[in-house]
Amino acid sequence: SVTLFGVVDAGISSYSNKSDNTTLFPLGLPPLGYVDSIKVKRTVLSNSGYNSSRIGFRGTEDLGGGLAASFWLEAPISNDDGQQGIATFARRSTVSLSGGFGEIRLGRDYTPTFWNDTVFDPFGTNGVGTNLISTANTSFGAWAGGATTSVPGFTNVTGSNYVRASNTVGYFLPPNLGGFYGQVMYGFHERDKYDPGTVTPTALNTQRTGRYVGGRFGYANGPLDVAASYGQSTVGDNFFAGTTTKVKTFNLGASYDFGVVKLFGEYSKAKNEVDNEAIFFTPTADVDLKGYLVGVTVPVGPGLIRASYSHVKYDLNTPFISPFVTTADPKANKFAIGYVHNLSKRTALYATVARVRNKNGANLTLGGPSFVTGFGGQTFTPKTSTGYDFGIRHAF
Amino acid sequence: SVTLFGVVDAGISSYSNKSDNTTLFPLGLPPLGYVDSIKVKRTVLSNSGYNSSRIGFRGTEDLGGGLAASFWLEAPISNDDGQQGIATFARRSTVSLSGGFGEIRLGRDYTPTFWNDTVFDPFGTNGVGTNLISTANTSFGAWAGGATTSVPGFTNVTGSNYVRASNTVGYFLPPNLGGFYGQVMYGFHERDKYDPGTVTPTALNTQRTGRYVGGRFGYANGPLDVAASYGQSTVGDNFFAGTTTKVKTFNLGASYDFGVVKLFGEYSKAKNEVDNEAIFFTPTADVDLKGYLVGVTVPVGPGLIRASYSHVKYDLNTPFISPFVTTADPKANKFAIGYVHNLSKRTALYATVARVRNKNGANLTLGGPSFVTGFGGQTFTPKTSTGYDFGIRHAF
Amino acid sequence: SVTLFGVVDAGISSYSNKSDNTTLFPLGLPPLGYVDSIKVKRTVLSNSGYNSSRIGFRGTEDLGGGLAASFWLEAPISNDDGQQGIATFARRSTVSLSGGFGEIRLGRDYTPTFWNDTVFDPFGTNGVGTNLISTANTSFGAWAGGATTSVPGFTNVTGSNYVRASNTVGYFLPPNLGGFYGQVMYGFHERDKYDPGTVTPTALNTQRTGRYVGGRFGYANGPLDVAASYGQSTVGDNFFAGTTTKVKTFNLGASYDFGVVKLFGEYSKAKNEVDNEAIFFTPTADVDLKGYLVGVTVPVGPGLIRASYSHVKYDLNTPFISPFVTTADPKANKFAIGYVHNLSKRTALYATVARVRNKNGANLTLGGPSFVTGFGGQTFTPKTSTGYDFGIRHAF
Description:
homotrimer, 2 helices, globular
């Protein structure tokens, strides 16, 4: 009654991240030892270039009367170096009760808001081709937030509960609604509450940080699939100042399968915002993150060509100061193209190449080392990130 | 030949722990900002409210001639947040050889002394209903002891080898003794011994700490089950002072199943004691911990009502100083009641409520945050701990 | 399609490691509190005395046309204390594509150079009987190297990639070559490369450390098996000094099965060497490590007697200074004998005793605590290490 399943995906990946010298020199004269740009490269044996490497256990029990109980425990693994076995069930760890009413699910699971980023990405947010909206959102909680219930050693989980959330209660609509589907999720922050409130410790991020609330609703019928989601993740709080920092995310995605070609599109808007309950307070600027993606897949015999273009733009909502101070909004775009060759349903070879271009201080890579931003007293601004994956995915 | 088994148990739990202001104010006048009592609450998605969440692998090989070899590897998992996968086999990790003579078992296993605390508890030492004897014993090794071979990240294991012990050799009587059963266990401390002894390093707790010796014997026949156990766990030593600190535990439990109702009872006595081999020494006071439990379960169709009352009392053996110094013995009691609704043999819904009352400085909770013991220069004494579990247990 | 397999091996082991007082006293008079020698002993419940305790998942998929995809995920476990479950797949973590051309294997795997040390050791580099060549090589990378991609908490993996390497690409010859077999392996260092090179950070061991290159070729036919291997492991580098430290290993092993007795032999030579690309540099002395082993196994009914003698010698290549300064080369030898009693193919009882003798500062044990090298201002030199294993191995 238990199914053991998994994916072992390994490949050779290479990343080259280039930043340009943007130092302003007095008199415009570059000094001795001037370097025009710096490239930092890394070539590795990687995992999860096409599908995330994992191992899991799942099962369902028929309870009669349409009721069923089920569980799903799924661990991320790093099969390239063997360092991460089944140390956590950080990919998913749930127990469910389902029936005609739908499904109640308890534990750690994907957030509703993440689904559109991955389902409507031809590259499924894996490897160098990953949707740039996802790349930008992964680090977005860090703009003003603090650490929450992240899982140690599992880099795919950030403090903003972007991809998954722990300690959640979820509800899913039943599958028989004529193509309509939907889910809502609440994630406990598991923080202490003091009574009287005046004895609350003054430590930051100890009152509500870690909470997640969100939902997703969609329609899938024939070649069409379309879905919208909205969620709020509490990434910081200051009890005595009366402030709560939230990442609020809305996105909308769709795909249409014409047979010879399948089209993908997504629009996403996130806001990192401080809610104030105090009467008098110092206003803080929200940070906006908008993005869109267009993508395509083309079946070619046993293979699949995949391509996407994605774009993101941050709006720092910085007031105009003077024409000499840059307040241009950071933005970046990405182009990715790849080919998957299926040797069987379970085993495939794949290759992907991609390139990210950053502007106005945006700092997004497709993998590998961080951009170099300083050397010898000179400053460098992130520009391009280029890379490839070439590997094999085997599922069991 | 390998059986994969497990339990995924998740629920919503809430804890509210209240302490009272016991500051003695000059002239009896409470200051500005006086707080009568402080409550600290936490609501969480919990695991193991009814049965401990786990995943394991076990198997038996028939060797012929009545002999058999078997293994059992069982990991605790935290399915509410996915943080703990199969990182350890801290619940049980053994290899056995068994036959007409009984069973020899090597590895990490439950201590004989723990069994009575859990077997004769209607709540099986899980969730907010847990036997108060077990709660008190979990932290009892810390009264005078040091850390031993605890398993990192596994909170159910303390330095006193209370629930389980590592590096053990166990022997079990064969099952065909007319209802009599029994076991003995020895756990290696795995410390270094120096020859000559004079070169032993002066570091504390490096010579014998971690050793466990114990046994349990019982009789189970028809509706009756009764068992007694005794064990010693070395929780501290000081080689050059010639002292060894041990927790010595005796307990006796019984249950009788009348069909319409099943009764449970347990008596436990533990002593945290310093053995002295030196001729001249400063006497140290032992700490005693006595407790009893009475419980009942009542089958109701596919469900089971469970209730228990447990009581513990510490005897600090403090000498009488003056009528103005409190030397009253800390004590606590607990009442728990709950209902389990079986949807199948493997799947159940459950709910439990419970309340612990502490007196004279006893400091026991049924879960959640620690009691607040100080605020704004005022002192607070632990009083009540109240909580509930409401969840689902699915076994596979 | 997934095979779950494993070994649970537990036993009682004891180690006694003795060092002699080699202090030079003024006038030759030992002081008050003089100790002739110090023995440090430890008795433990051990794992892996006969075969390494493990749990693993593996499978193969037939892709048609002679092609196959397969995976192998194998975790080391510490079943004596339950502390290490399936936290890593540090024993092996690979995905392969194989066919008439041979096999391409990606991930973490044994190095080609380790195989001869274990295959031609009657004790299979497990327990107190372990090949002394292996014991010496385990710590050999530390003579002049730094930490590389070692796996935390997995003591069998050193910085020198001696037993296994992560992030590797391997190629194996197909099995139908009339007894000839062979493999080559390349392990990525996964370090960053800077362009221009002048911006490379000055941190040590960040440029090439961790890389492994090696191969092994052999011939197995009827009673004969013979193989040679060569490999290089980069254990340190200094980019700006232009130096790279490598452990270069060559070994040759053979076994011949006469039926009533099987003979084993191995010769090994390793060099810890600094390669210099700079024109002017301070020469550094290489360290050589040479060793040989002769062994025998004798089947006795359902049992097997095993014995081996192994010898290693370090050549520090120290220049002659004066007759008063010791420059003698450290060396050590070991004798081990044991018996394995098979209760079935999967279950065996075993016992091994062994003794290592060190000379001229060699510092090798067969397990347990380190030699004491100083006490009360006196210095001690490692001499003998004696120990035994007595246990049970159960495979599933």
